[in-house]
Amino acid sequence: MTLFDIPTAALLGQLMLGLINGAFYALLSLGLAIIFGLLKVINFAHGAQYMLGAFVALLLSRHFGIDYWAALILVPVLVGLSGCLLERFLLRPIANQNHLYSLLLTFGLALIMQNLFTNLYGSSGNAYPTPEVFRGAVNLGFMHLPLYRAWVIVAALAVCLAAWFVIEKTRLGAYLRAGTENPQLMQGFGINIPFLITLTYGFGAALAAFAGVLAAPLYSVSPTMGANLLIVVFAVVVIGGMGSIVGAVVTGLAMGLIEGLTKVIYPQAATTVIFAVMVMVLLLKPNGLFGKGA
Amino acid sequence: MSELHATPIEQLRLDNVHAFYGESHILHGIDMKVNRGELVTLLGRNGAGRSTILKSIMGMVGRRTGSIMVNGRETTRLPAFRIPRLGAGYCPEERGIFASLDVEENLLLPPTVRSGGMSLDEIYAMFPNLYERRRSQGTRLSGGEQQMLAMGRILRTGANLLLLDEITEGLAPVIVQKLAEVLVKLKERGLTIILVEQNFRFAAPLADRHYLIEHGRIAEEISAAELPGKMDLLHRQLGV
């Protein structure tokens, strides 16, 4: 069976792979959007925090025998805590400066981390074993979907949904939304905004690390894995609209699918299609598809 | 003031308060004292520094010096988020309704700072419009409803010192009347209220005392009893 001369199986297969990439885009752009919303910091360290997630999982497994499932919980906590420290001691002192300072600071930190890991572990990738239960594949009719990839989609979507629930439906989320709009008035109600900011940055870093652990068995764990991904994720955030939570997730998944679709129709454009979409969105709707205005 | 407080309890005291926004020196040595249960207004022209007095109390100005005691605690060295926990509730001039929250979320947003606040039901009973529109986006409400929301929001927290900035500004007379009734009820509950008000006819019958603010200083303190004799002065100073 074919559709526009494209075998349906190939199309569905690429869409499925696109959805997996999209799940990572969604997780990472969600963290970026939350951080930008409250802190107005464009977190260039996000890719490095994703890489850190994968590397810490790898090192914990190598040196302490800590398995995938424990790492999935432990690593985001550790990287999240390091994010809290980073915010408290490096970002807070420059919080009142031009936003370029925090951008440059996080960019510099990302370079330091990337090169530190390159020095210590080399630039070639390291394999992380796929957890036992996910070895094997399921036949979907149009493709053999490795079980681990199916798990990645489920886990990423579950975390995005949980984050959405916390932000939209809980008291803490209301503080976050209101703090994003008017932090000074929130202090006037007795909300400890500096503490909320530290927690939010830590949470964003933890999301990146979670994505990193998810990615570890899928892609090779290398010091530059985050830098390569981050550029695409920034394009996703621009398309979705800076600071929009739902926008980040929906756009992340959609861009993964568009990428997959392009791989079938015109493979040469697959790596650039997201940037073409970004250019179009910037021309037609500069605040992004889900943006609320400048 | 009610007979219960035979000895007045000092709720708020400002001593030689100066406030600055960057290089601008806005308040030039404010001294004032407000007792528990009093309703005091800050009168004056736009730009006289009345809103800045409220913001100074809340720690929302760039820098402040002197002494500001809220419920007996010195606050000039406290971070801003600690001051509401001493019992101060602030209703800003721009109302500060959050667009990303619905009406009920806006109402439930400020954390409880002390016991004795009003329940959600009591607030809805006081402002029935808010109940009808509790699922609407906060900023979709009319100006009057937004004002009621901004007031109701701080009544839930148990704050016993209310700082209300221009709550009648731009509102229809029937809503202004409603707000006057609400203030009377709040006063009966023993709350202390500081009102920055342009609408003198609204403020005069409610207040125990008035401070006339000019150029960041207190030009005159007028008690309710002295008011009739000072009308000429006020008309001249306020242009009302």
TrEMBL record, chain A:
Assigned keywords, A-Z: Amino-acid transport, Cell membrane, Membrane, Transmembrane, Transmembrane helix, Transport
Keyword Chloroplast attached: no
Residue stretches in coiled coil: none
GO cellular component terms, semicolon-separated: plasma membrane
InterPro entries: ABC_transp_permease, BCAA_transport_permease
Entry similarity comment: Belongs to the binding-protein-dependent transport system permease family. LivHM subfamily.
Membrane topology label: Multi-pass membrane protein
Entry protein name: Branched-chain amino acid transport system permease protein
One GO biological process term: amino acid transport
Compartments where located: Cell inner membrane
Transmembrane regions: 12-34, 41-60, 66-86, 98-117, 148-167, 195-219, 231-258, 265-284
Organism lineage string: Bacteria, Pseudomonadati, Pseudomonadota, Gammaproteobacteria, Pseudomonadales
Molecular function terms, GO-annotated: transmembrane transporter activity
Automatic annotation (TrEMBL), chain B:
SMART domains, sorted: AAA (SM00382)
Top-level division of the source organism's lineage: Bacteria
Gene3D superfamilies attached to this UniProt entry: P-loop containing nucleotide triphosphate hydrolases
Signal peptide extent: none
Domain ABC transporter residue range list: 12-240
InterPro entries the UniProt entry points to: AAA+_ATPase, ABC_transporter-like_ATP-bd, ABC_transporter-like_CS, BCAA_Transport_ATP-bd_LivF, P-loop_NTPase
Keywords of the record: Amino-acid transport, ATP-binding, Nucleotide-binding, Transport
Gene Ontology MF, one: ATP hydrolysis activity
CDD domains in UniProt: ABC_TM1139_LivF_branched
Pfam families reported for this sequence: ABC_tran
Transmembrane segment boundaries: none
Keyword Transport: yes
Any one Gene Ontology BP term: L-amino acid transport
Family according to the record: Belongs to the ABC transporter superfamily.
Protein name: Branched-chain amino acid transport system ATP-binding protein
Originating species: Pseudomonas linyingensis
